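Re: [ENG-882] Designed sequences occasionally contain unexpected residues at chain ends

Forwarding the minimal case from QA. Structure tokens:
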């Protein structure tokens, strides 16, 4: 749905984006990841036509992106931008009409979303009277009120407590089921693992990686396995011998343990099982894949070391 081709942008000769290219597919939740200052928000502002790129192009559904496309895009900026003196319903209707809706349709949609997020009783309250979390919900609804096909959310989970984080994530999953496409810029790596289909990692204005979340995790795995077993820990450690490294262990009951081991050389899980059988009673074996937080750190450290 969205093709970003060779985008570059500088501010006062400081490069914010450097020949960035990526694709967001229709109907997916796409994670846009990176540390502060990586260039994520700059890219999002370019997509939303707030900034103009210095070089490169963006195509939306095969055509060069224009102002007209913004009517089908919902945008939640990192810097929340509600009018404090306006009442909640009045605010949502106003923002819906800016996206081309009639007053009646905007009002109907705003009431629907307020009821869904349990803030319908606040419709006549001014924004400045709301708690931070309540105002966050209003801002999120503002991105949805005009029924966009495409959502761009810049740090949508910041400022929410765990209950409301779960509420937002559940709603994003529901929107995906309806065929909506979502770009999610976030520091919340757990949410990326939970809901994102694919992700791109940006660091210091360049893209380090772009793939499915599963592939990104698999590419950084280190041949580690978690084993739960009954038996003697000394016997377990001796059985590993030189082909496997015991990294960590925990006693979880009488003669019951959980251990983390790392393969050496070309050894595989079958080799591990053959080595241990007869020495302990294996209850469970699971290959350990790195979390997205670990992938994030690994890729950034690798980039920094290559430039050291």
């Amino acid at each position: 749905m969205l093709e970003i081709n060779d985008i570059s942008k500088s501010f006062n000769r400081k490069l914010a984006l450097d020949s960035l290219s990526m694709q967001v597919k229709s109907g997916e939740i796409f994670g846009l990841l990176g540390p502060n200052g990586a260039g994520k928000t700059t890219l999002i502002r370019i997509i939303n036509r707030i900034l103009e790129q210095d070089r490169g192009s963006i195509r939306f559904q095969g055509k060069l992106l224009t102002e007209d496309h913004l009517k089908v895009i919902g945008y939640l900026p990192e810097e929340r931008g509600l009018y404090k003196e306006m009442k909640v319903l009045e605010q949502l209707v106003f923002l819906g009409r800016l996206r081309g809706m009639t007053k009646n349709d905007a009002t109907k949609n705003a009431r629907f979303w307020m009821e869904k997020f349990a803030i319908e009783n606040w419709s006549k309250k001014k924004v400045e009277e709301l708690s931070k979390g309540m105002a966050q919900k209003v801002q999120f609804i503002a991105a949805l009120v005009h029924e966009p096909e495409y959502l761009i959310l810049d740090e949508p989970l910041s400022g929410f407590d765990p209950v409301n984080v779960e509420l937002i994530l559940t709603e994003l999953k529901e929107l995906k089921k309806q065929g909506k496409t979502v770009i999610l810029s976030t520091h919340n790596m757990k949410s990326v693992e939970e809901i994102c289909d694919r992700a791109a990692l940006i660091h210091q204005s360049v893209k380090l990686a772009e793939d499915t979340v599963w592939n990104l995790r698999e590419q950084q795995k280190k041949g580690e396995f978690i084993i739960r077993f009954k038996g003697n820990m000394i016997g377990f450690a001796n059985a590993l011998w030189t082909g496997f490294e015991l990294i960590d262990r925990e006693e979880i009951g009488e003669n019951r343990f959980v251990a983390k081991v790392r393969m050496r050389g070309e050894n595989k899980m079958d080799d591990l099982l053959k080595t241990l059988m007869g020495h302990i009673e294996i209850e469970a074996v699971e290959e350990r894949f790195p979390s997205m937080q670990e992938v994030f750190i690994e890729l950034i450290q690798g980039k920094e070391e290559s430039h050291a």
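QA comment: On inspection the terminal residues look reasonable. The domain at 2-218 is CATH 3.40.50.300 (Rossmann fold). Proposing we downgrade this to a documentation issue.
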